[in-house]
Amino acid sequence: MQIKGSSFNKLLIFFLLLLSFTSNTQAQNISLKGSWRFKIDANDEGLKAKWYATALPETVNLPGSMAENLKGDDITLKTKWTGSIYDSSYFYNPRLAKYRKADNLKIPFWLTPAKHYTGVAWYQKDVVIPTDWKGKRIVLSLEYPHSETRVFVDNIEIGTQYTFVVAQNFELPANLKAGKHQITLQIDNRIKAINVGQDSHSLTDHTQGNWNGVVGKLELRAGSPLYFEDIQVFPDLKNKIAKVKIQLKSTSKISSTGNIQLSAKSFNTKNIISVKAISAPYKIVDGAGTLEINLPMGDKIVTWDEFDPALYQLSASLISKDGKKDEKKVQFGMREFKAVGRTFEINGRPVFLRGTVNNCEFPLTGYPAMDVAAWVRIFKISKDHGLNHMRFHSWCPPEAAFIAADLTGFYLQPEGPSWANHGTSIGEGKPIDQFIYDETNRMTKSYGNYASFCMMAYGNEPRGRQVEYLTKFNDYWKAKDSRRLYTGASVGGSWPVIPNNEFMVRAGARGLDWNKQPESISNYAKQIEQFTVPFVAHEMGQYCVFPNFNEIKKYTGVYRAKNLEMFQEDLKDHDMADQAQDFLMASGKLQALCYKNEIEKALRTPNYNGFQLLSLNDYPGQGTALVGVLDAFWDEKGYISAKEFKRFSNSTVPLIEVPKFVYTSDEKFEPKIEIAHWGKIPINAKITARLIDDLGKVVFTYKWGPKTLNVGAITEIGSLKYSSNPITKARKLKLEVAIDGTEFANDWDFWFFPPTLPVVKTDVYYTNNFDDKAKEILNNGGKVFLNAAGKVVKGKEVVQTFLPVFWNTSWFKMRPPHTLGFVCDPKNPAFANFSTENHSDMQWWEIVNKAQVMNIEDFPKGFKPIVQPIDTWFLNRRLAMVLEAKVGNGKLIVSSANLSPDLTGSPSAKQLYYSLQQYMLSNKFNPKFAVDFNTVKDIFETPSKEQFNTFTKDSPDELKPKPKDEPKTTPKTN
Fold first, then answer.
1. Helix (H) / strand (E) containing 475
2. What stretches of 804-902 adopt beta strand conformation (E)?
3. How far apart are CA 865 and CA 916, in angstroms?
4. Which segments of 539-658 does DSSP mark as H helices, in order?
5. 350: number of Cβ within 10 Å
6. Which of 267, 309, 564, 809 is least surrounded, with the fewest CB atoms within 10 Å of its CB?
7. What is the DSSP track for 912-933?
8. What's the CA gap between 490 and 460, in Å, rounded?
9. In the sheet where 226-236 sits, what is the strand order?
10. Cα-Cα-Cα-Cα dihedral of 81, 84, 87, 93, to 10°?
11. What is the Cβ-side half-sphere exposure of residue 364, based on CA atoms within 13 angstroms?
12. What pLDDT was estimated at residue 904?
């Protein structure tokens, strides 16, 4: 069942209408949305002072957070954030002093909320209980409080609940009379005895924020005193049944007997399939009862997966012998997600997980979307980019996400709400040990029927006695619920292996080794050979791009992008404000190139079963990690479209094997063609390869087929041989490989250079040293080419590789590399004999990789180099790799990349040097800016005035998390 465009929108509307009937149909609901009385309890005195017995003086609107209601503390330098600050240089750097002033406060670590508050707050509302609710079970349901909630009705305390993963439901007293009553909530968002970790995405200011309030549905529900406490559906495809496990309860421990009827029907398929109803007797003793019923699904079963997300609705009806009734409807899918050896299978078919990590980035609200439509948008955008999977890093999304993933066909890995590392640990007897079991049990009870809930982990990268703890955690869940696969934790490559993981989510088999010449032959097979279960790459990518300052205006909600504002102003202070868009586009092209090559490397690796990008969209915290091809709002940035991304990240992807991307025309060019196929069914494919020149002309065509592409296999198609013949002018050719009659196609750029270049007769003085002879020639009106490779002092601290910044330089305290590629003008006559776009590409690798850059901090205002490396946005240094200037009466080109007349085995560098030679001989060589000889010479004598300084290895005392004495407990696992 393929659902597209308007058909999907109609289905969504239908489903939302259906959803309104999926709760207990015997229930009556009273919405509690709207105005609530309110008071902040910063001194934690309200409980002792019995605030629940008085009328609170202020008002807020719920659903909502305190920040949305402009309640809480103003942001200051002493705000006690929930989250680690690794690079505290912001607090001490004199250059950033202006951003530390109260009237211009801008922090670089994460987005800035309108208000901030951690502590206790009180919310209060009057309700009227209808007379016809007498004898009914009344429940106060709060879909998403954050985070510990204590409830009072009038002056009576009802109970306390603490969870990050599910709704909080409070059963009100059975003797509650009709009429007016006062409901009071005490909500506390502090980290107390249960410490999941201050960087956990369930509560950290790095992403959603540690907010206080309630969002989602808020309502009173009245229903039958005999009711379905829980229904879990376990599909059995082999036997064509759905095993239905039911828990029944009654108020006041009433005993009861009667019958339960079950039926089901599909609701999002072209042909609705109805399942014949069956009934079974039940028995409730002392207020509780359990039973299991096998529901035959019939011969025409529709299954759920990424291609055909067919869903059923189970209807359960209870009728007691004394006439009491209850009804419940449950959404489920007939699917089996398993690990078979080293391969994932969905309903018996191999699966490759093409995933992204969701870090709870919701920059308008600071808390996750609670509506299905918003999550459908996220999953549809992900699918448009070729993805089929999402991991939720140390948090579990609300129910709307599971509903949306079911509808769109998306495989989910929610996690317990913990990154038990910074300030906490697991397996050492702390309260978090039990809390993880409690939370994951709550998750599976509330969301376990959703077909998309395919995998689960405790959370992210823990410390402590993790092997022992997580091994028991896996054993517990494998024995309890077989509907999904379990891995102890999602971890980096240095974490210990949990031996009984059903699949691995690990680093170690990811990344690009572009210290060597880029190629498309190597794979990750060696790194994963030790594993006997499916392997999924942990947090793949993390390639940075320059900030998109056009995004700032999107922050119209509770957050402001003061971090981006700060970076933008700093760029202006460094005389490069007019280049922001060029930096974004050029760095974005390099980022896209990196993602393409890493994903293709994963796809061509045998026994590799998936990746989780970090991430498809930007991460606004941890110093601001601009690693997405999409911004934090899931919008495109302009340098790669979803359609372009999907070419190399799809269920079926053409691949090539080549030893390099740059050739001389006398070399063999024989790319080997393969296709990785993880589609719905085998394809009987005809394949066409084309070489296309810069003008769009097809210069070579080769065809294969038909070839059978089996699911879960990398199929070798064959090799093509192309001779570019002797050429005198460099050229670029695009190789496109497509499966005829399908959307499946992929492409790669190649560069072909002449094997020899003409000897250039020139009056240009070539030198490796900016010496007196160079000065004399320049003073006499001559031309000088300075090869400054290895000689740079001013800029020596800036490490450039071909790869861009990883994650960001703030979080890793200026760990190299420091640049984001470079920008140039391809129309500049200096490139007349060198094929280039305005950004890094493969033909630049041998020129750029590990080449020094020059810090031109003392050059004239407005000066632009011929090739300009893009610095990390935390420093925004003016950098150059190739520059031109008028010096004295002459003209100068300086290159900190190694360019010389005697290069061998470096066709790109030879060609660029030749192009620059020709440029210097032409009448177009007329540098715009005059620069003093000593200013140029200072590049090779004096260090940069402005260099990164940590100032301290610590963070300010007032920002340090205070250690807490945590009582030790032993987790219960039953």
1. helix 466-480
2. 819-824, 854-855, 867-871, 879-880, 882-887, 890-895
3. 13
4. 562-573, 580-603, 642-646
5. 17
6. 267
7. HHHHHHHHHHSTT---S-B--H
8. 5
9. 226-236, 241-250, 288-296
10. 20
11. 9
12. 78
State the pLDDT at residue 20: 44
List beta partners, residue 389: 355, 411
**Token digits for 417?**
């709400």
Question: Which residues lie closer than 8 Å to 100 by C-beta, 6 or more apart?
Answer: 77, 90, 91
Report the alpha-carbon distance of residue 861 to residue 651 in Å, rounded: 50
- Dump pLDDT digits (tens) for 214-238: 999 999 999 999 999 999 999 999 9
692: Cβ contacts below 8 Å, ≥ 6 apart:
698, 699, 733, 734, 735, 736
Residue reference for tokens 């979803």: 642
- Token code pair at residue 703: 């065809």
Positions of the chain with pLDDT under 70? 1-27, 954-970, 973-974
Q: Is the peptide bond before 63 cis (omega within 30 degrees of 0)?
A: yes
**Which amino acid, 313?**
Q
Contact present, 877 and 871 (Cβ < 8 Å): yes
Measured CA to CA, the distance from residue 256 to residue 262 in angstroms comes to 19
Work out whether strand 698-709 and strand 683-693 pair parallel, antiparallel, or are unpaired: antiparallel
Is the four-CA dihedral 406, 407, 411, 415 of positive or negative sign? negative
Single pTM value for the model = 0.96
With left for phi above 0 and alpha for psi between -120 and 50, is residue 801 left, alpha or beta?
beta
Whether residue 147 is preceded by a cis peptide bond, meaning omega within 30 degrees of 0, is yes
For residues 680 and 657, give the distance between their C-alpha atoms in angstroms, rounded to a whole number: 25
Cα-Cα end-to-end distance for the chain = 40
What's the whole-number average pLDDT of the chain?
Answer: 95
Q: What is the DSSP string of 581-606?
A: HHHHHHHHHHHHHHHHHHHHHHHTST
Report how far Cα 238 is from the mean position of its chain's Cα atoms: 36
Q: Which residue has the tokens 């590990």?
A: 850
